[in-house]
Specification:
Strand content: 25-35%
CATH superfamily of the largest domain: Response regulator
Order of helices and strands: EHEHEHEEHHEEEEEHEEEEEH
CATH topology of the largest domain: Rossmann fold
Structural class: alpha/beta
Distance between the termini: 60 Å
Largest sheet: 5 strands, parallel
Shape: elongated
Mean pLDDT: 80
Oligomer: single chain
């Protein structure tokens, strides 16, 4: 049995991974962790052979933790992240793998196949070289995240990924278990993802969630005007209109306060 540890600060992401792991007969989940400090302690105590490791976490980032583990008999690492800047190049290096969220069972299975092959035919020198190369590339990615540098959104389209420029996205709308991502040129991409997940991926930029089902890119908002009971109506440059929801009144108030400070 391959002992596995899941490290991610997002409970839903951990739940998704543990569900996939439970389907595999040769994997056994030895633990979960929501931050880098706790993860390092559990790796030392539990001795997992494989770690699914998120990059952006409080405390010690996945990248920093990966560097620490590299020194003395590290477990195999599969990095997971929702961000794309410089990440595509990571597939070319001889690390184990790099899963771009959201990923499905097929992509998960491909990553596991690489781990199983490495366990059958260990190649420590190649593995170390590949991991160093991957960590080097991810350091650039992490720096971009810290400075708000990620400028594209990766979405899964069948068996491939599409990369949308954040500046071109006008709004995101929820439709049941799916999201519709709209761009300025009129294109619409449908993805199976929760609104709170994409909200987290787009946090810290020009996107603001105004209701349970709508998130807007402020760069594409033409005007906003008050409605009844403290709600607001947002009009995009395209002419589309959206009303803010009761649950997000505080978010909109904070937005207005910020706009007043900036202007």
């Amino acid at each position: 049995m391959i002992k596995v540890l899941v490290v991610d600060d997002e409970p839903l992401a951990r739940k998704r991974l543990t569900s996939l792991i439970a389907r595999e007969g040769d994997l056994t989940l030895v633990g979960e962790s929501g931050d880098g400090v706790d993860a390092r302690a559990k790796i030392e105590a539990l001795g997992p052979e494989l770690v699914f490791l998120d990059i952006k976490m409080p405390g010690i980032s996945g990248l920093e933790l990966g560097r620490t583990l590299h020194r003395d008999k590290p477990p195999y690492i599969i990095f997971t992240t929702a961000y794309t800047q410089y990440a595509v190049d990571a597939f070319a290096v001889d690390a184990v793998d790099y899963l771009l969220k959201p990923f499905g069972r097929e992509r998960f299975a491909q990553a596991l196949a690489k781990v199983r092959e490495r366990l059958r035919n260990p190649r420590p020198i190649e593995r170390d070289t590949g991991l160093d190369a991957l960590l080097g590339q991810l350091s650039v990615l992490t720096a971009g995240l810290a400075g708000g540098g990620a400028d594209r959104l990766a979405i899964k389209d069948g068996t491939r990924f599409k990369f949308l420029e954040l500046g071109e996205i006008t709004h995101v709308q929820a439709d049941g278990d799916y999201l519709h991502v709209h761009t300025a040129n009129g294109e619409r991409s449908m993805i199976r993802e929760r609104m709170q997940e994409i909200e987290r991926r787009l946090a810290g930029g020009t996107f603001v969630r105004i209701s349970r089902s709508v998130m807007l890119n402020l760069n594409h908002v033409k005007e906003m005007k008050p409605r009844q009971r403290g709600d607001y109506e947002f009009t995009l440059k395209s002419g589309q209109q959206f009303a803010s929801g009761t649950t997000y009144r505080e978010t909109v108030r904070n937005l207005i306060a910020r706009l007043r400070r900036d202007h």
